[in-house]
Amino acid sequence: CQAALPFPLASPETRSGVPGLPLSAEAMKINQDTVLRGKKVTLVPYTAAHVPRYHEWMQSEELQRLTASKPLSLEQEYDMQRSWRDDADKCTFIVLDSERWPGQAEENSMVGDVNLFLTNAEDPTVGEIEIMIAEPSCRGRGFGKEAALLMMAYGVRKLGITKFEAKIGQENEASICMFKKLHFKEAAVNSIFQEVMLRLDVSDQERQWLLEQTNHVEEKSYAELKQPAGMLDT
């Protein structure tokens, strides 16, 4: 479980867009003012200000391969950010280093992203999770595990998720290992896409474990943290 690989889990259709599901658009915009602060990582909403750094990450051939992605132009990346913000079937956070933010600029504190996709139109309680730690210096430090736990707990508490799925490239042993530590079980192997499907059914016992693992997390207002004390919005 010590493989020095990042943790991107995107299925091939992720960054090219997934057909919208018949859900309230507000359901997945619920996190637009949400900050989840853990010990190692802090999750913040994905805004246009994060796009240039994210675009820079995705020029990496390694990340393109591991996320089954094609390189996008900067304008296409802005379009993708707007899609992730507005679509009813997506919930996304940017992962920041808790030691750096607040304090340093967000774009200098970014280490990756974490997403939930509602991919089953017949069962909105199924969430496909993906996590990417894009900064090489931040891999192997537990950032991916805590970010996944924060997102899973958020999905259970706020979005009514009761079943999680993760699609991971077969060669990405670090990601597979990490999710098995989070109680996911191997459910299927897709030889065409060369990926493994892992699944976790959130029983009462699993829910209790998940909430215990994240009982240190603070939920705060993004607008308030970004706004200096004593300043008013104009």
TrEMBL record:
Keyword Manganese (UniProt): no
This enzyme catalyses: N-terminal L-methionyl-[tubulin] + acetyl-CoA = N-terminal N(alpha)-acetyl-L-methionyl-[tubulin] + CoA + H(+)
Pfam annotation, one family: Acetyltransf_3
EC number(s) stated in the UniProt entry for this protein? 2.3.1.308
List each copy of the N-acetyltransferase domain by range: 41-185
Per the record, the domain of life is Eukaryota
Among Gene3D superfamilies, the record links this protein to: 3.40.630.30
Top-level enzyme category: transferase
Role noted for this protein: N-acetyltransferase that mediates the acetylation of the N-terminal residues of alpha- and beta-tubulin.
Q: Which family does it belong to?
A: Belongs to the acetyltransferase family. GNAT subfamily.
What protein does this entry describe? Alpha/beta-tubulin-N-acetyltransferase 9
List the taxonomic lineage.
Answer: Eukaryota, Metazoa, Chordata, Craniata, Vertebrata
